[in-house]
Amino acid sequence: MRKVTEQTVAAFFGGRDRKVGNTQVLTDEQTAGMYLHGNLIALRETDTGRMKVRMAGWGTPTTRERLNGIADWLGVEGFHQKNWTQYHGDVPVSDTEWVTLREGY
Q1: What is the pLDDT of residues 29-53, one digit of tens each?
Q2: How far apart are CA 97 and CA 63, in angstroms?
Q3: Which residues of the chain have pLDDT under 70?
Q4: Which of 46, 57, 94, 105 has its CA at a distance of 20 to 30 angstroms from the CA of residue 40?
Q5: How many CB atoms lie within 10 A of CB 94?
Q6: In Å, how far are 25, 91, 92 from 12, measured between CA atoms?
Q7: Between vectors from CA 8 to CA 50 and to CA 69, what angle results, nearest 5°?
């Protein structure tokens, strides 16, 4: 895992604002959001623990790296690409669809 991913994922789950390179974490009392190049790729509802992620139209290795950092933290299946199709585990997903990694606590 890249250093930028480690630092931003720790901030994302720690509820701290952080910007490292092309990745930024912004938090408030109700949510934490992770942005890659200004595109929202992950959203955590702090009161419920609900966690949603998406590629935001960019199925790139960097996007998958950041989302896989979040998936690793949660201990759930991550993302990969095969034949130009994005997958969450064994399930194909579009570049724009939200994937719920956790419903709540």
Answers
A1: 999 999 999 999 999 998 898 999 9
A2: 14
A3: 104-105
A4: 105
A5: 13
A6: 6, 25, 26
A7: 65
**Nearest residue to 16 (alpha-carbon basis) of 54, 46, 36:** 46
Q: Between the CA of residue 84 and those of 2, 44, 55, 57, 93, what are the distances in Å?
A: 23, 28, 14, 13, 11
φ and ψ of 87, to 5 deg:
-130, 140
Average per-residue pLDDT for the chain: 94
Quickly list DSSP for 28-56: -SSEEEEEETTEEEEEEETTT--EEE--T
Q: Domain residues for 63? A: 3-102
How many distinct structural domains can be found in the chain?
1
